């Protein structure tokens, strides 16, 4: 007996109006193995056409003549209805000529009913399915080759082309319909490349199997285009040369980069503006002139406020275009003798010489903020950016070039802290604030050992029952000299200094231990949510850290929920998926935190093992009075529920917000309306008794 084609059942659709012939076909396929084939049948074309679109079939067996269709019309109708499914015709001797015509039109094969054996039938089915799979794979390969921007070709040993992909045709100027078998590669090479290919590349490939090197082609028969090329010799099992293939990549940009290396040593390659080194040189010279002539100069440090969001959403090419446009706008706001430089990323510096007065500098700064805030067109999309600007003056104070840059940088950070889209001047008071920040960074290193941290817990409440589904662990720092310090102050410091990893580990262990105590005290449904910082998430040992906290505390994994921001997950979707799935296998659940502040897209959520989504408080704040906030909240709720995610709304502080969320089927809410962050004992009472909900009316 023939072996089955695959280990899965082959789904066969049969169009046959003769009950005896249909019974015989079923019996033949059943004789092979009842589990190898499944048969769906119709006795007229109309029924067949109704069934084919809804079913998934691997093969069609069809008589040409059925009650409602004859001859080639039958095949054409089946083929048009299911073009990707191979068709084998089962016909009588009198229909053999029609069957041959059908094969010419695309049928895989035909079989004559008289004397048909099981082996012949199964062999034909295998061949047809295998041929169809091979054809699909060939089309996929061709599609890949056509999609690539690299030039891909195959040629006979004599050099005559057999295949040239779309990128090659476009580069050579060959029409998509032109027969490339009439084309010779050397016709599209400059003379030196033709010599190189004939004397080195092809002989080396034939001898060694592969050759790598740099060549050139005559783009559209004219301009010489440098290429990095690979030539491969393909041989038969007996060792004879069958054909040659090649992959060539346009390296024009690399060559241009090499040619302009000296230029790029002093200029930013993206914007064409002076880079850090050239800016420092010009600043040193300007400082000497200012000292000699008794004039003022200003150094500005400019950082774009929302560049990363645009760069991540529209792509790096669009980000580069944005940087170029920003550089041009900065130049338009200044005099030709002033210097605009790009330090890297989205950071720019400006040197303004011969400054008339402090008031004149303020006018320039106001103009810069106004011009930068105007919309830009990037990747056919209108975008808006703002900037935070720090400014310092010379020769007010004793400073060198590096110190001036540090002062302007410090003032820029103060502008960021002051709400962005503003400018700040460096001052002694600013220096004191910076020193205070450094002091806090130092004290943070000792905070865990000194027992200065504690956790508070804010409930997430089911909007229909008032039961606490989970409590979010929130870190608090009671500084020995300054008292309670806001997380908005010390968390960014911990992130910048790298201390967030050890602090986050402490929070995780403390929260798990507390939740285990609640459960041991008779609250079996107690669950805790812990925020995972960016640095924690990127650590390769995150799963081990979570497992250690669970093992040490004795808390079941399903009692722990990790809150992770959407922007963090999207930094590297593949890595995020791997980490989350490893933790999911342990039983841990995940929530998307602050949804709407980053990518604001649910498209990626289906690829990640998420259970919950938290609507950011910025969308809840204006509910239900703001139409835009209402539309956004409704969209998030509808799409999240469609994906099987429960939704928690953050920042619920008013009854009107609660009533709206209840009416829109939000699952849970968190906010001061129901409960502020609480110490463990107070949170325990709510875990036991639930929360009294506001009136729904």
> Level of helix content?
40-55%
**Quick one: biggest sheet?**
8 strands, mixed, barrel
Radius of gyration: 36 Å
The first-to-last residue Cα distance is: 75 Å
Total strand count, please? 26
Mean pLDDT: 87
Textual characterization of the structure:
By secondary structure, the protein is of the alpha/beta class. It has 4 domains: 10-144, Response regulator (Rossmann fold); 148-255, Beta-Lactamase, CATH 3.30.450; 266-426, Reverse transcriptase/Diguanylate cyclase domain (Alpha-Beta Plaits, 2-Layer Sandwich); 457-474 and 507-689, EAL domain (TIM Barrel, Alpha-Beta Barrel). The chain is 45% helix and 23% strand. The chain contains 25 helices and 26 strands. The strands form 5 sheets. The chain has an 8-stranded mixed barrel with strand order 18-19-21-22-23-24-25-26, surrounded by 4 helices. A 5-stranded parallel sheet has the order 2-1-3-4-5, sandwiched between helices. The chain has a 5-stranded antiparallel sheet with strand order 7-6-10-9-8, with helices on both faces. Strand 14 and strand 15 form a beta hairpin. The longest helix is centred in the first third of the chain and has 30 residues, at 118-147. The radius of gyration is 36 Å and the shape is flat. It starts with 9 loop residues before the first strand and ends in an 8-residue tail after the last helix. Mean pLDDT is 87; it is low at 1-7.
